[in-house]
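Customer ticket, subject: "Can you confirm the structure for Outer membrane protein W?"

Message body: Hello, I'm evaluating your service for our small team and ran a test protein. I'd like someone to confirm that this is what the system normally returns, since I don't have a reference to compare against.
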Amino acid sequence: MSPKKILLASVAMLVAGAAQAQSAGSNIVSLGWFRVMPTSSADALVVDSIGGVPINHTEAGTSAKIQSADTLGIAFTHFFTDNIAGEIVAGIPPKHDVEGAGTFAKYGTLGNVRQWSPAVLVKYHFGQAKTKFRPYVGLGVNYTWFTDETINNQTFVRSEFGPNARMTASAKSSWNPVFNVGANYAITDNWFVGLSVSYLPLSSTATLTTQNAGAAGNATVVSHTKIKIDPVVTFLNVGYRF
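Agent reply: Thanks for trying us out. I re-ran your input and got the following:
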């Protein structure tokens, strides 16, 4: 074979390979950095009961907010067609600080919590499989639950609930929709860089249980607050096709 034919054959192979970059049957594993940015805050604290007696008293002006956090994320994407792909995405659960707001702002950080938020999405990629820059839109579902819910600011606990008070917390899990936009850029046939932005209309109810040991004995105070988290999540990643 002449050098000219070898060159033409090589170019043809490269073009054919590029055309398979994000085509039907392709799988991509991506690893990157999540930035989870809550955009809302908590409703006023409601005292449900004291010593088992219903109270249902709202502490006007009280509030809290969830701070942003960073974590490592991973995603697996499979292309069913040249344009439609399914994706499973998860991350190491980020640890969020819970800051006091309203009349609780003076206490600073009240505690922290870990958020688990794996998601499944369907994405539509614009352009052809061989296109280097491919924007996309996605829609999916997420299941969020929380662990390590801790209220460790004893100044807050003792000032608001009594000098011997000790508090524990729990947060309700939920299913939530995920709205997603982003783009991938093909560095080679197999390697990609990507950036996506997701929005989750997410809220949870946090229940606070306080044991207050006083002269009259132990009094259990149960209270709750609805926390609107509504995070915007960015994912900057590097992907490999196989």
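A couple of notes from the result: Residues 3-19 have pLDDT under 50 and may be disordered. DSSP finds two helices and 16 strands in the chain. Feel free to reply with more questions.
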